[in-house]
Amino acid sequence: MKYNRRNFIAISGLASTALFIPNFLKAFERVNKGLLQTDKGKKLVVVQLSGGNDGLNTVVPYRNDIYYSGRQGIAVQRNQVITLNDELGLNPNLTAFKKLYDNANLAVINNVGYPNPDRSHFRSMDIWQTASGANDYVRSGWVGRFLDAQCADCNNAYHAIEVDDTLSLAMKGDKKTGIALRDPARLYNSTAEKYFADTVASYKAHGSATDTDLNYLYKTMVETVSSADYIYKESKVYKSDVEYPQTDFAKNLKTVAELIVGGIDTDVFYVSLGSFDTHVNQVSQQNRLLGQLSDGLDAFVTDLKMNDRFKDVLIMTFSEFGRRVKQNASNGTDHGTANNIFMMSGALSKPGIYNDSPNLNDLDEGDLKYHIDFRSLYATVLNKWLNANDEQILGGKFEHVSVI
Amino acid sequence: MLSNRKKIQHLLWRSGFGVDRTTLLKLQDKPVNEVVDWLFNQSKREADLNVVAALGDRKKPDMMTREEKKALFKANFQETSDLNLAWVNQISTTEQPLREKMTLFWHGHFACRSTIAFLTQQQNNTMRRMALDKFSDLLMAVSKDPAMIQFLNNQQNRKQSPNENFAREVMELFTMGRGNYTEDDIKNAARAFTGWAHDFTGQFVFRQMFHDYGDKTFLGNTGDYFGEDIINIILEKRATADFITKKAYKFFVSDTIDTDIQQQLAKQFFESGYDTEKLMRTIFTSDWFYDEQNIGSKIKSPIELIAGIRKSIPLQVDDNKPVLYAQKILGQILFYPPNVAGWPGGRAWIDSSSLMFRLKMPEYIFNAAEFEVTPKVDQDDIEEQMMMNSEQPYAAQRTVNKLNLAADWQSYINSFSDVQDKQVFNEVFDYLVQPLNCSVSAEMLQNYANTGSREEYIKSITVRLMSLPEYQMC
Q1: What pLDDT shows up at residue B379?
Q2: Strands A372-373 vs A179-180: parallel, antiparallel or unpaired
Q3: What separation in angstroms does the CA of B378 have from each of A117, A125, B323, B328, B337?
Q4: Does B300 contact chain A (CB < 8 Å)?
Q5: A213 close contact with B: CB closer than 8 A
Q6: Cβ of A166 and B439 within 8 Å?
Q7: N or C: at which end does chain A have fewer Cβ atoms within 10 angstroms?
Q8: Which residues in chain A are closer than 8 Å to B429, comparing Cβ atoms?
Q9: Which residue has the higher pLDDT, A10 or B188?
Q10: What is the pTM for the complete model shown?
Q11: pLDDT value, residue B371
C-alpha cells in the first residue's frame, strides 16, 4: 500500500473499516455490556514454591536413620512431626495440611521429578514451567499451551490468571497467554487511563485485523483492557469475610478465592511463594515459609468451603527441585532432584499418601531418584480435571496417576 | 515507493539500535550502499568492555574460608551488574552500532550464564572482537571460552566420566540443529572434547590426562579426534550454514522466513567459508531487505527498545538499578539469557504485563511517573544474597518505583529547528514511527500535545508517540 505520512489516517481508515469486525472485539463488547456469566467449572490453582523447597523436611521420613544421621543440624525431630502414617509425617508448621489430610482433601505424591535432573534454578524451573525434557528447549509454557488447545477461540487472557506483576513462562502459550495482575482494581485503573483507552479506541476505529506483529500488540492491548474490565467486575461480586493472614501469599490467595466464588470464567490460577533456597540456616527460613503456605491455604480452603466451591478447586504445589539428602556445613541444604508434590481438593478420588516414601538407601550420588515424571501429574490434571487433550499439550503420552 | 529516509532508518534500526535525528539528517539522502559502507567502516574499531579486573592468581575456591567465598560471591554479583550497565550504556551510545548489534546477536546465539563476572566480560569481548569475522573462527573461540566451558559442564567432561552437555548443545543450538546427528554422534563428540577445560585465571587449557585418545566415530567418519576436529567436521556440513542464516534472517530481517532468500544466503555463507561480514553486507544491500513487508514489522527486543529511546534522547544513567529493573520487567537481562537456547524473540516478548510496561515506560522515564511493579526474583540472584547475608533471609520488597533519569532533550529538539511549525508533528511522527500502516489517529494524539511552547510541544508528542504500540516496532 502506498504510504503517505500526511494522510495516513485516511489510508488506514479506508483500508480497514469495511472488513473489520474481529472476533476479539465481540468478547470485549459482551463484557462491556456487563453480561457476566457465573462459571461453576473446575479450577486449577498452581502454587509455585520458588527456590527449591526441601521436600524431606516438608514430608519427613521420621523413622529413617539415614535421614537423621545426614541432617544432624536441621532434621525435624520425631516428637515434633505431625504424624501421617508410620513412616511419614508433616513439618510441624503444616498444621492446615493435617486437617486437609484428615478430611481426605490432601494427596502427597512422593518422588516426583524427571530424567537427567538439572540442578540450576533457572534451567530446572524452565523445565517445570515448559514441561520439557532436560534436553529440550521449549518456548511456551504448559498452562499457555492448555489455553492454545482448549481456548483457541477465546479472545481474552483471563482464562489463566497469575497473581503477580509479571507473567511466568508457564502461562505463555504459542498463541495465547494468560494475564498477570496483583490487584484487579489496580490493573483496571491502569487500563482505564485515558491515553491508553484513546489508543485502543483509535485502533478500533481505524485499525485492521491483519495478522501482523503490530496488530498483535493492539490485539493484546484490547484483550488486556477487556480482561481487566471483566476481572475487576468479577472481583466485586464476592468480598470475602474470611480472615486471611497478613502475608503477600495469603493476600494473593484471597484475590483468587474472591474471583472463584464471584464466578469468574477462569480455568487456571497461578501463585508463587519463596524463596525456599535454603543453603544457610535452613530451619528458620523454611519453617517461616511453610507456615505462610499452610496458614494461607487454610484461609483459602475455609473460604472456598464456606461457599461450597472446594469441590471444584484443585490446588497443586511444585518446586523446581528438592534438595540433597545430606545437609551442608552451614546448616542448610544444596540443590537436589526429586521432590514431593501436594494436591488438595474437595474432590480427590485417592487422597492420602499416594506412593512409597523416598528410598534413602537407593540414591543417585546423594540425591533422591524420581519415580513419577512431573509431566504425568500435568497430564492427569489436564485430562481428568481440566478435560483437555494432555497428549497434545505435553507433546507426548504420560501415564496418568489416579489421584483425581 | 519507500522514501530513501525510511530505508536508511530501517537499515539503522536493524543493523543497530536506531539513530539520533541529527545523524539521520546527515545520512537520509545517501544511497543505501554508501550508508552500509559507512556502517562497516564505523564498526572496524572495537571497544572492549573493561569493567571487571582480571582474575590473576587467586586462591582456588576450595582453599577459601567461608568469609572469603562470601566476599567473592558478592563481588561477582556486583561486577556482573556493573558489566550489564556498561554494556547497555555502550549499546546506547556506541559509534559502532553494527558491531554491538552483532555482539548482541551472538550473545543470544551462544547463550551463556556465568557466576564469574570476569569470564562473562571476557566472553563478551571475544564475541565483540570476532563479531564480523568468520563464523568458523568465532565458533572455535566460543567453544574454548572458559565461561562456556563452565556453563556447559566441560570442566567435568573426562575420559572416565564423559559429560555430554557441551557436545549436545554445540550441535543442537550453535551449529546444525536437530535432525542432523544421532545420540551416538553426541557420545563420540563428547569423548573428543574431554580435556577441554580452563584454569583459575580464566584461560583455556587442554588437560591431556583427562582426554580420551581412542578412536571416535562422528558423523560417519572415524579417527582419534580432538575437539577441534569435531568443530571442523560440523563446519563441513551445510546444515550449519543453513541453521545460522535462518537465525540471522529472523534476527535482522523478519520472523517469517522467505525460504528462497534464506537458502541463497545459506549457500553463499557456506561457500564463503562462513564469512559473516559478507553475509551481513548481502542482507543489508539486497532489495528484498527493503520490501514494505519488512519495514517496521519486527517487535523490538527490550534492549532495542531501551537503547532506541536513549539514541533519540540521551539519558544520564549511572545507577544500574533502574536499567536492570527495566530489563527484568521486560524480560531480557543481558548476561542472563533464559536458557542456552537464548531469547525466543518476536511475539514471545509480549504479554499483557510486559506490553503495559512498554507503553508506560516513556512516562516513567521522562515524566518521572510513579508505578508499582515488582519483577520476579531471579533465584540465582537470591543465592548471592543468601551468601551475603545469611542471618537475614530474603524477603520480597514491594515499593513504589520511579525511573527517574536525567534526559538531555536539547540536541533532539534542536534537530527540528529547520522544521516549520505546521510540519513538526509529521516530522516527529516520521522519525519515531517505523511501521507503514498505522491505526492511531493524529487528532487523538494532538489532544495530548502541550502547546505551551514549541519545545514543550515536541517533548509532549514525543513521549506520547513513544507510548504507542507503533513505537514497539522496528
Answers
A1: 65
A2: unpaired
A3: 20, 11, 16, 9, 12
A4: no
A5: yes
A6: no
A7: N
A8: 5
A9: B188
A10: 0.90
A11: 81
Listed in sequence order, the residues at least 6 apart from B24 whose beta carbon sits closer than 8 Å to its beta carbon are: B5, B8, B9, B12, B431
pLDDT of amino acid A36: 46
Give the list of residues 6+ apart from residue A128 with CB closer than 8 angstroms, or none. A170, A318, A320, A374
Grid cell in block for residue A230: 471483566
Q: Does B315 touch chain A (CB under 8 A)?
A: no
Quick check: B258 and B13 in contact, CB under 8 A?
Answer: no
pLDDT at B368: 82
Strand duo A313-319 + A179-180: pairing: unpaired
Asked if B348 lies within 8 A of A139 by C-beta distance, the reply is yes
For residue B399, is it within any domain?
Answer: no
pLDDT, position B375 = 82
Q: Provide, as residue numbers in chain A, all residues whose Cβ is less than 8 Å from the Cβ of B256.
A: none
**Could you tell me if B24 and B12 are in contact, meaning their C-beta atoms sit under 8 angstroms apart?**
yes
CA dist list (Å): B413 to A31, A345, B368, B462: 44, 62, 20, 10
Distance CA B25, CA A107 (A): 68
Please provide the DSSP assignment of B266-277 as one string: HHHHHHTTSBHH
Name residues of chain A where pLDDT drops below 70: 1-39
Q: What is the DSSP letter of B179?
A: T
Q: Which residues contact B132 (CB under 8 A, 6 or more apart)?
A: B40, B43, B98, B99, B102, B276, B277, B280
Domain contains B413: yes
**What domains appear along chain A, each with residue ranges and CATH number?**
33-182+245-394 (3.40.720.10)
Residues of A in contact with B380 (CB under 8 A): 120-122
Residue B29 lies in a domain: yes
A73: closest CA of chain B, how far (Å): 16
Residue B400 is predicted with a pLDDT of 62
**Residue B423 CB partners (closer than 8 Å, separation 6+):** none
B69 confidence band (pLDDT: 50, 70, 90): confident
Under an 8 A CB cutoff, do A213 and B473 touch?
yes
- Give domain status of residue B337, yes or no: no
Structure confidence at residue B323 (pLDDT)? 86
Beta-carbon contacts below 8 Å between A and B: 191
- pLDDT of A124 reads 95
Residue B138 φ then ψ, to 5°: -60, -45
Name the A residues in 149-188 with CB < 8 Å from any B CB.
Answer: 157, 164-169, 171-172, 177-182, 186
Q: How far is A272 from chain B (nearest CA, A)?
A: 10
Bridge partner list, B161: none
Domain of residue B471: give its range. Answer: 409-474
B377-425 tens-digit pLDDT: 766 665 545 444 433 333 444 556 777 788 999 999 999 999 999 999 9
Please answer whether residues B205 and B169 qualify as being in contact, where contact means their C-beta atoms are separated by less than 8 angstroms.
no
Helix (H) or strand (E) segment spanning residue A215: helix A213-237
**Domains in chain B: how many in total?**
2
Q: d(Cα A377, Cα A383) in Å, to the nearest integer?
A: 10
Residues A193, B363: Cα–Cα separation, whole Å: 13
Domain boundary among B294, B313, B332: B294
For residues B179-201, average pLDDT = 95
Determine the pLDDT at residue A209.
Answer: 84
Closest residue in B to A227 (Cα–Cα): B352
Quick check: bond before A240 cis, omega within 30?
no
Give one DSSP letter per residue of A47-106, joined into a string.
EEETTT--GGGTEEETT-HHHHHHTTTTPPPGGGSEESSSSEEE-TT-HHHHHHHHTT-E
Q: Supply the pLDDT for residue B56.
A: 73
Taking 70 as the threshold, does the pLDDT of residue B339 lie above it? yes
Q: Where a domain ends, among B248, B264, B294?
A: B294
Which chain B residues contact residue A51 at CB under 8 A?
379, 382
pLDDT in the model for residue B399: 59
**Which chain A residue lies closest to B439 (C-alpha atoms)?**
A207
Neighboring chain B residues of A52 at a CB cutoff of 8 Å: 379
